[in-house]
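Onboarding guide, step 5: your first structure request.
Type a short instruction followed by the sequence, for example:

Predict the 3D structure of this protein.
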Amino acid sequence: MEKKDIKKVVLAYSGGLDTSIIIPWLKENYNNCEVIAVSANVGQGDELDGLEEKALKTGASKLYIEDLTDEFVDDFIIPTVQAGALYEEYMLGTSFARPVIAKRLCEIAIAEGADAIAHGCTGKGNDQVRFELAVKHFCPDMTIIAPWREWSIKSREEEIDYAEAHDIPLKITRETNYSKDKNLWHLSHEGLDLEDAGNEPQYEKKGFLEMGVSPIDAPDKPTYIDLEFVQGVPTALNGEKMSAKEIVLALNKLGGENGIGLLDIVENRLVGMKCRGVYETPGGAILYFAHNYLETMTLDKMTAHKKQELSVCFAELVYNGQWFTPLREALSAFVESTQRYVTGKVRIKLYKGNMIKAGVWSDYALYSEELATFGVDHVYNQANATGFINLFGLPTKVQATVMKKNSK
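The system replies with structure tokens like these:
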């Protein structure tokens, strides 16, 4: 669609620096088009406060605020945790939030009869790919506007200049201008001093961490928690039945208080460059740890090893924005089948940034104390190992025999 024909644009709107200036920019550069802002509630808390007034004041015709928190947890977070999917240690907090947001964005764009969908992702990042692949899945013929790939603005400092010139209120200053992404699963920090890989993150500096504290500032007394799972889904915390979303939120508080879930990594972006990010994922770190702990008891060796192998592929699909693909769906079907007996309870001790295993129980445990004991048992005949080793070692013995004969 030609620029002059675009009359109505649906914008993925967070109210942050990028999307705050995009509303007036769209109206200036796209024939005073109507801009409909869509804010997805994926658990970013008070970041949603005052958004409607701000969006309308800066030129939007209306603002949708869509609560996607339950769908986000149940349909995106939990399947990824069950897969054990980590991208270079990163727990994919931004990655799997984008498809659920883009899905709703497309639904609203179709309902509103929009001509285009716009987003505030930069041309250097991964999110542009994640948003646009989802749009191509749900709205294959929709025009996509990515201002960062069009406008003359080159930096976040120039964005602030534009905002000040257009009287757009901001919650940041030039000194606190980290690039952040927050939802109920995590908070990411990029930019400023973190761009120098030689700088230590300012974990103890007031205001840097938002979801918890530095391990140094965590209590000197450990916190014990009990987590229960049914078929790989968390169902109870400390004996209290909860939804998966409620458990994540409760674990965020407990983990944050104990300095759990801090990650400082240099990761390989999809677009080809390395970038440095600091992530806070207190509840997520506990959930991954606990789920894996239970799986060590309930999954057989071959399934566990194949699942671990495929988890890398699953993580790359999520990171690369390929959630809505046949391969991701196929992997999820495999993962779901592996979770049939991942039911039980785990106990974890949280202490100054550490997660320590403190007990695990399952009616489906494949671990047998009677078999594994170093004491007296009546179920394992150690003499059977002789025949097993002879057969298992037969190829090695034949190879050595042939080599010895031919070396003379």
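Each response can be followed by summary notes, for example: The two ends are 79 Å apart (CA to CA).
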